[in-house]
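Q: Hi! Curious about what Glutaminase A looks like structurally. Here's the sequence.
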Amino acid sequence: MAIFWNILAISIILQRALCGPSYTPVLPPSYPLAVRNPYLSAWLPGNEVRNLPFASARFWNGLNPTWSVIGRVDGRPYSLFGVPLPGPGVQAGVLQSAEYTSTRTTFTVTAGAATFVLDFLSPISPLNCVRQSAPFSYLTVSATSINTSEVQIYSDIDNTWAGQFDEYVQVGWGYSITNDSTSAFTLTPGGTTTFSEYNNTAQWGTSVYCARPNNSTLTATVGSRDAVRAQFAANGSLPGQWKWQYPGVTAYAQDLGKVSKAGINVTFAIGYWRQSAVNYLGDPRTAYFTATCSDPICGCVHVLDDFRAADAEARRFDAAIAGKAESVAGANYKDKRDTFAFVKEISSDGNVNTIDVIYPMAPMLYVLAPGYLRLLLEPIMRYLSSGAWPHTYAVHDLGAAYPNAMGHNNGRAEKMPVEDCGSLLTLIYMYQLATGDKIWAAQYHSLLQGYADYLVSNGLYPTKQLSSDDGLGNIRNQTGLAIKAAIGLNAYGVMTGQRNFSDIGKRFASTLYDEKVGLDLHRTHFTCSQGEDRSWGMMYNPYPDVLLNLSTFPKAAYAMQSSYYPTVRMPGGVPLDSLVGFGKTDWMMFAAATVVAPGVDKVGVRDMFIDDVHAFMANGINAVPFSDKFHLRDDGTIVKGTWSQYKARPVVGGHFAIMALDGPNLFGNGKGGDGARWVQVI
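A: Let's find out. The predicted structure is below.
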């Protein structure tokens, strides 16, 4: 009978190998593995997943952190993930399937008579500040066997997780076992400065990898990478050298004993611990999570204790997001879930709390936990209230380089006066409308009124200045900025009960649309620049007018613009404006939401935008964490559908724009957690 089952297993493996792995819902550009903050951000390129046993994890910017998983089945070792050079006698497992949701990536790999499921979980907990700010992700490895097999599981990491990518750099390691049998390895860079970065990796703090001997016998060691892996391959355990030798690893082995169809699993937690997380105006701020734990070992214990609850919540979260996304706009919209939010303006300029980044990511926060809008904006408002910012318009960001949020007391931040004033007023009203909290904004009344006054004087005919799309340079009389000013003024008027500001905003709108100041001669579209008849652009700034039901502009204005988009669509989608050949996925989704405003109802145009973004995501030619910018046509050496410049940016929160039209607070509490005075949003 055992022979029969072995033959059957071999035939199934061969059949699956010939058919190739399955990808659910699609094969994305990159799979998230451990994505919790700007420094714990590990991914796997989609074009490497088929060769998962040999594929290496990637930091979001392309660096290669070492993270491996090896399985041992009936005495035979198999590489499952992250082992580019398996070593003598180590066979490669075979990937059967790859799946992602909003919170997890799951790979199924067969090896001998066993099947392993590698489940990478990065929890999302909109209403639990402690869980949300915990700087840890999970890896659960499950094993089953069609007959009864002896199974051991191995996993290691190295100094790259501490931001040290030179194998021979000095790094301190530690190992602890707590009273509840939690084992924790720590790796700490030596001789580095707090709040310093190198190549976007943190040069302070501690990486930590931890496990418990649940359903297994756990052994661990530190040693030379090749020697430690060979030791596991030969013995299935790690009696230990306990001496760091370059290139070195910290490693665990879990002996599951006899495994059958019922299966056994083990869970690892990986994190990057920064006791001082952000330098806010010279005051080192810790993550909210550290109110519970003050060191990485305690953090390990906490997150492993919390795993079942975090896992269950993540499954509910995935189901809620998938169900809501598909119900409002179909399956192609559902596939673009990417709900990762960061304070750092990743991969563009590294600014802290950038207003024109919070603005495009706001739909995600509006849907999941609107209270986080306040948590992101409050540090900005406190800084502006201090009087240290010397201008009469809002500051662009809180610091040029995360994690140093030192403000710009010299006044030399990126200059986007209309952009930032209009966005700030709109975002604050979005928060107030979603949560019912009128108290928070009231304390900044004089400051906000000053920014509204600035828009009254400067918003309709903006001087030569930058918009959120600053790569296009300084442009005079931008119609999009004037639209933003009109909607921002109306939002401020409604928020504060000052009708005169709403009236001015609507007068701006009438000038732009009824008097054609912002239109082309034939009234077919909004221009990019007022008076330049041939110019046009992606009009994403009307979106809050629709979302917040402000009616700043008439329905006819949005119907006009909606009908225009298909006429300027390139092969890959609608470009950002008339001068470029690339698109922005966040603004495409803003536009897609606007075209289905009540009384406009251009569902076909909405679906055009969704399908174009989905086609970019699923085209198989990109291998980076989701990029919000991509090429829309073949042009010399540029291939249509190729990503451009950006990756893993928080602006992909704009993909929730259509879902947000269904209302805020998907999880029923708009206050965004427990009302803590400060929290580090991931």
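A: A fun detail: Residues 207 and 272 are 4 Å apart (CA to CA).
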